[in-house]
């Protein structure tokens, strides 16, 4: 390790640095965790100039009053000073104990900080402050004599840059902090500013003052949903209200943050006001917990205001109080008191007088009229007010309804003494949650799946539902107006809005260290976990573990799930799991995942689940195991035709392997893995990545001088060229690879190389050479050398050869040979049952039926293959199947269906990078367009396709495009007739050279008809 002061190397057991003498700071990893907090940075402006010419003692004396004022302001609002910087400090709000109000508290602390320094009376002492909310790593650093709470991460640098940019006595705030504190504090937007160390200008705000809005009014102003349900809670409240005429009623509405306590309370009291009740309300503020009698002051002011507005009442209730009690109320209201009798009272007597006076005022306002005293958020009440509210709640006075709200961790101790009825609020039921979502998102059925996901994600906590929806709207995922929102792009994860991260983190901070460990293990295992595995990984004794589960179940964080198969544990909602997981620093996560991996490996039931083993190996950063399990998971996905998932696991395995030490063995595995992975990339239609696999394998094979693996890599590259390159390039590379494969004596790669070369000849329009090459490969695969490359079944390669050879014979007009090969392909597909083989057989069967002039039969076969390809994600075949299905519809005269299918085929081919499929789709889409009456568009499409085919060497497709041009060109004048003659003769020449006899015969027949009809061609 290194000294924090001079960075010299030191021994972990040393207490002092031998170079500079600084005490050694030791980080305690178990106490480190990620936190979402607000960071405050403040310093004295131009402090260097203030103390440059002063002696050290004088410099300290000059700056210390400002530093003391800064510390006091931070501590007043619950912040922690994490570091002092000589002329300033860094502080954190929301850690080590989470607080969902960390941003407003930090803003109020900053305002107070500036006020306190300004009140010192030293005009030379001016401060500037920067605030930012973000994720940090927080940890305890210990030395021989003390412990210091420190934070690390990029978030603190932005706070420091905002502080540097601020002007004297100004507070600059980041957008993240502004969003969290908006409503509690007033801001000016200063525009985007360039800050040192940040590549882009960032939005910056300036605090201009504290807001007078209460927390409820801030939440109400942001609310976009209507009040729903709460039938049971409302019934209990009304029952209590009915008993008020005969006896005082005290009700505590208890629930976690976001559950809807304030919403229900205000809905209920408004109903009472409508019935003529007098309403007195006050709210405890997190910003004023350190201010004595702050809540009571609000309550007294509310009473006076309510009485003044009540036309049935006369006079000020203070007039009926004794002189001492009037002085007590004046003291609560911070009014100047000149009467010496008040100052002569002992502190205890003053407190008793305030309590008695407050109770007397309350009793006076309920005489003859029912009144409800609503006091919200008792968990934030200041200590002095708490005693008085306890006395008021215990009054034995008819017509008085004391209505309180609190979070569970802040429930007053005196609640039981005053015989209060406690109503515990729970999340909404699913129907109410859906009603709330329908009100916000709208009634469109397209949002049905999203609504269900939000319900599951938030567990029907109203605030969480609203904030998730707001986040989706703010980031553009949902567009429109509230009540009519449309989902415009897929959602992978709903995430956790910053506004509620602190709410959840605060709940997690209420659990013990052991309970937190159980939560962390369960979070690493996923939304649902096996109880036995959690206990094994937690390494807790049975009794302690069961106590933890019981406590977590009571807190509704981790609950048992009824299951016939196993004892399962499930998070109450996904956001609790995510916050738990994200709060762990990287080393803790790695350790837990490593222990989970070891537990799985020791339990034989997990050996058939490489997906889970791979997941935990990656997160434990056990790269050899991540490679092994990732590869196994990919192979498992291939067996069940989950090709997209197989690609993901192959990429995981490749990445993990590359993180292991460089050896020849590693490089051999890396090449083999890419050769094995090629099948998943091919079938998923990820052509560009397929080619890159070959290139990367070729580079590695050259570096270790492995000729055999180089041949394999080049064969993969050659196959990719058939889709991604030009036929000329594909033929040249294919011929080279076949030669190398034969030289090295590897029959498996030679057979695949022959198939690739035959495909290249086919795309180049060299059908005779294609047929001969496919015949050679098929002969090998049917004979003694029936081998295929690594991870490729011989029957798969044989099926492809039969498929392509059948295509070739069909194009050449040799339908009997084509049909025999098609039957062979269909037999192989039936034997293997693999979806890919069945799709390939359907493709060749449809092509054959088109060659036999049976488009209806072709359509039936191709439709089955198309559905199968889409179902299993065999994207490589989707464009070609769609293209030939469109051709089948065209030949049946189903023009609109043909246009839709060919358009889809062309777009999908472009997305995949399948050049020949793009050209063929364009040619036949042009013919459909012509049949539908748009001759000009058809001509343009065909001309473009013909030019592209000519330039890139697709001579067979060039011939088809020329023939299409002859069809769509109207023989209306001499110039058009001449163009038709040129197109037909060119098509005949190309078809003749390539061996495409059916196309040649069609073109010759059309040319003969034109010549025979003279000027009248129809």
UniProtKB/TrEMBL annotation:
PROSITE patterns (UniProt xref): GUANYLATE_CYCLASE_2
Domain of life: Bacteria
SUPFAM superfamilies hit by this protein: Nucleotide cyclase, P-loop containing nucleoside triphosphate hydrolases, TPR-like
InterPro entries membership: A/G_cyclase, AAA_16, Nucleotide_cyclase, P-loop_NTPase, TPR-like_helical_dom_sf
Keyword Chaperone: no
CDD domains found in the cross-reference section: CHD
Keywords of the record: ATP-binding, Nucleotide-binding
Residue span(s) of domain Guanylate cyclase: 38-163
Stored PANTHER family: GUANYLATE CYCLASE DOMAIN-CONTAINING PROTEIN (PTHR16305:SF28), TESTICULAR SOLUBLE ADENYLYL CYCLASE (PTHR16305)
Name of the protein described by the UniProt record: AAA family ATPase
Organism in which the protein naturally occurs: Bradyrhizobium vignae
